[in-house]
Amino acid sequence: MLRFANLQLRDVHLAEDVVQEAIMGALAGQQRFAGRAAMKTWVFTILRHKIVDAIRQRSRSINLSSLSPEEEDLDSAFEALFKANAHWRPESRPNNWGDPEAALHQEQFWAVFHGCLDHLPANTARVFMMREFLEFDTAEVCAELQISVSNCHVILHRARNGLRRCLDQSWFDAGERSC
To answer: Which structural domains are found in the chain, ordered by start?
Structure first.
Protein backbone atom coordinates (compact mmCIF):
# COMPACT_ATOMS: atom_id res chain seq x y z
CA MET A 1 0.00 0.00 0.00
CA LEU A 2 2.83 2.35 0.90
CA ARG A 3 4.62 1.67 -2.37
CA PHE A 4 1.41 2.35 -4.33
CA ALA A 5 0.76 5.61 -2.44
CA ASN A 6 4.36 6.77 -2.81
CA LEU A 7 4.29 6.02 -6.53
CA GLN A 8 1.19 8.21 -6.93
CA LEU A 9 2.11 11.03 -4.56
CA ARG A 10 5.92 11.18 -4.94
CA ASP A 11 6.18 12.19 -1.27
CA VAL A 12 7.16 9.55 1.29
CA HIS A 13 5.72 11.42 4.29
CA LEU A 14 2.43 12.20 2.58
CA ALA A 15 2.20 8.60 1.32
CA GLU A 16 2.65 7.32 4.89
CA ASP A 17 -0.09 9.66 6.13
CA VAL A 18 -2.47 8.61 3.37
CA VAL A 19 -1.90 4.89 4.00
CA GLN A 20 -2.46 5.43 7.71
CA GLU A 21 -5.70 7.33 6.99
CA ALA A 22 -6.86 4.54 4.66
CA ILE A 23 -6.21 1.85 7.28
CA MET A 24 -7.94 3.91 9.97
CA GLY A 25 -10.87 4.47 7.60
CA ALA A 26 -11.09 0.74 6.85
CA LEU A 27 -11.03 -0.12 10.56
CA ALA A 28 -13.63 2.52 11.39
CA GLY A 29 -15.90 1.36 8.58
CA GLN A 30 -15.40 -2.40 8.80
CA GLN A 31 -19.09 -2.90 9.60
CA ARG A 32 -19.85 -1.44 6.13
CA PHE A 33 -17.66 -4.05 4.41
CA ALA A 34 -20.21 -6.21 2.63
CA GLY A 35 -17.83 -8.88 1.37
CA ARG A 36 -18.74 -8.35 -2.29
CA ALA A 37 -15.02 -7.93 -3.04
CA ALA A 38 -11.83 -9.07 -1.39
CA MET A 39 -10.81 -7.19 1.75
CA LYS A 40 -7.60 -6.09 -0.02
CA THR A 41 -9.62 -4.60 -2.91
CA TRP A 42 -11.88 -2.75 -0.49
CA VAL A 43 -8.94 -1.27 1.47
CA PHE A 44 -7.14 -0.27 -1.75
CA THR A 45 -10.31 1.48 -2.92
CA ILE A 46 -10.29 3.48 0.30
CA LEU A 47 -6.59 4.21 -0.26
CA ARG A 48 -7.25 5.32 -3.82
CA HIS A 49 -9.89 7.81 -2.61
CA LYS A 50 -7.49 9.10 0.06
CA ILE A 51 -4.77 9.57 -2.59
CA VAL A 52 -7.17 11.49 -4.83
CA ASP A 53 -8.13 13.70 -1.88
CA ALA A 54 -4.44 14.32 -1.09
CA ILE A 55 -3.65 15.23 -4.69
CA ARG A 56 -6.58 17.63 -4.83
CA GLN A 57 -5.59 19.18 -1.51
CA ARG A 58 -1.98 19.56 -2.62
CA SER A 59 -3.08 21.28 -5.84
CA ARG A 60 -5.03 23.82 -3.79
CA SER A 61 -2.19 24.75 -1.45
CA ILE A 62 1.22 26.30 -1.96
CA ASN A 63 4.31 25.32 -0.04
CA LEU A 64 5.59 28.75 1.01
CA SER A 65 9.08 27.44 1.72
CA SER A 66 9.42 26.49 -1.95
CA LEU A 67 8.71 30.02 -3.16
CA SER A 68 11.56 32.12 -4.46
CA PRO A 69 11.88 35.73 -3.20
CA GLU A 70 10.20 36.98 -6.38
CA GLU A 71 7.31 34.58 -5.86
CA GLU A 72 7.01 35.67 -2.23
CA ASP A 73 6.64 39.26 -3.46
CA LEU A 74 3.93 38.10 -5.85
CA ASP A 75 2.28 36.20 -3.03
CA SER A 76 2.21 39.26 -0.77
CA ALA A 77 0.89 41.38 -3.64
CA PHE A 78 -1.80 38.78 -4.22
CA GLU A 79 -2.72 38.73 -0.53
CA ALA A 80 -3.14 42.53 -0.63
CA LEU A 81 -6.09 42.04 -3.00
CA PHE A 82 -8.16 40.43 -0.22
CA LYS A 83 -9.60 41.49 3.10
CA ALA A 84 -8.98 39.50 6.28
CA ASN A 85 -12.21 37.54 5.69
CA ALA A 86 -10.83 36.32 2.31
CA HIS A 87 -13.25 38.43 0.28
CA TRP A 88 -12.08 40.74 -2.50
CA ARG A 89 -11.29 44.31 -1.57
CA PRO A 90 -13.79 46.44 -3.52
CA GLU A 91 -11.08 48.28 -5.44
CA SER A 92 -9.31 45.01 -6.33
CA ARG A 93 -12.26 43.06 -7.67
CA PRO A 94 -11.70 41.68 -11.15
CA ASN A 95 -13.93 42.93 -13.92
CA ASN A 96 -16.85 40.78 -14.93
CA TRP A 97 -15.74 38.54 -17.78
CA GLY A 98 -19.27 37.78 -18.83
CA ASP A 99 -20.13 34.48 -20.42
CA PRO A 100 -17.45 33.57 -23.00
CA GLU A 101 -19.62 30.90 -24.64
CA ALA A 102 -22.52 33.31 -25.03
CA ALA A 103 -20.17 35.94 -26.43
CA LEU A 104 -18.78 33.46 -28.97
CA HIS A 105 -22.30 32.33 -29.87
CA GLN A 106 -23.36 35.95 -30.33
CA GLU A 107 -20.25 36.72 -32.40
CA GLN A 108 -21.00 33.75 -34.65
CA PHE A 109 -24.61 34.86 -35.02
CA TRP A 110 -23.58 38.36 -36.06
CA ALA A 111 -21.13 36.96 -38.61
CA VAL A 112 -24.00 34.97 -40.18
CA PHE A 113 -26.31 37.99 -39.92
CA HIS A 114 -23.83 40.24 -41.75
CA GLY A 115 -23.41 37.55 -44.40
CA CYS A 116 -27.18 37.50 -44.86
CA LEU A 117 -27.26 41.30 -44.98
CA ASP A 118 -24.64 41.23 -47.75
CA HIS A 119 -26.95 39.02 -49.83
CA LEU A 120 -29.71 41.63 -49.78
CA PRO A 121 -29.85 44.21 -52.56
CA ALA A 122 -27.69 47.19 -51.55
CA ASN A 123 -30.58 49.67 -51.27
CA THR A 124 -32.68 47.22 -49.24
CA ALA A 125 -29.81 46.60 -46.82
CA ARG A 126 -29.18 50.34 -46.53
CA VAL A 127 -32.81 51.10 -45.65
CA PHE A 128 -32.87 48.28 -43.13
CA MET A 129 -29.62 49.38 -41.44
CA MET A 130 -30.68 53.02 -41.30
CA ARG A 131 -34.03 52.15 -39.75
CA GLU A 132 -33.11 49.27 -37.42
CA PHE A 133 -29.47 49.82 -36.45
CA LEU A 134 -28.95 53.55 -36.84
CA GLU A 135 -32.47 54.04 -35.44
CA PHE A 136 -33.53 56.72 -37.90
CA ASP A 137 -37.24 57.47 -37.97
CA THR A 138 -39.04 56.37 -41.10
CA ALA A 139 -39.43 60.02 -42.12
CA GLU A 140 -35.66 60.56 -41.79
CA VAL A 141 -34.90 57.48 -43.89
CA CYS A 142 -37.37 58.63 -46.54
CA ALA A 143 -35.93 62.16 -46.59
CA GLU A 144 -32.34 60.91 -46.80
CA LEU A 145 -33.00 58.39 -49.58
CA GLN A 146 -35.76 60.40 -51.29
CA ILE A 147 -38.32 57.58 -51.17
CA SER A 148 -41.97 57.55 -50.13
CA VAL A 149 -43.12 56.21 -46.75
CA SER A 150 -45.01 53.35 -48.40
CA ASN A 151 -41.92 52.44 -50.45
CA CYS A 152 -39.83 52.48 -47.26
CA HIS A 153 -42.29 50.07 -45.58
CA VAL A 154 -42.18 47.74 -48.59
CA ILE A 155 -38.37 47.77 -48.61
CA LEU A 156 -38.24 47.08 -44.84
CA HIS A 157 -40.72 44.23 -45.27
CA ARG A 158 -38.59 42.70 -48.04
CA ALA A 159 -35.43 43.17 -45.99
CA ARG A 160 -36.92 41.44 -42.92
CA ASN A 161 -38.25 38.57 -45.02
CA GLY A 162 -34.94 38.15 -46.81
CA LEU A 163 -33.01 38.18 -43.54
CA ARG A 164 -35.47 35.76 -41.96
CA ARG A 165 -35.12 33.28 -44.83
CA CYS A 166 -31.36 33.57 -44.87
CA LEU A 167 -31.08 33.17 -41.07
CA ASP A 168 -33.47 30.21 -41.16
CA GLN A 169 -31.20 28.47 -43.67
CA SER A 170 -27.78 29.61 -42.41
CA TRP A 171 -28.28 29.79 -38.66
CA PHE A 172 -31.38 28.12 -37.31
CA ASP A 173 -31.46 25.10 -39.62
CA ALA A 174 -27.75 24.62 -38.94
CA GLY A 175 -28.63 23.52 -35.40
CA GLU A 176 -28.29 26.86 -33.65
CA ARG A 177 -31.96 27.15 -32.76
CA SER A 178 -31.47 24.88 -29.74
CA CYS A 179 -28.63 26.98 -28.32
So the answer is: 1-63 (1.10.1740), 100-176 (1.10.10.10)
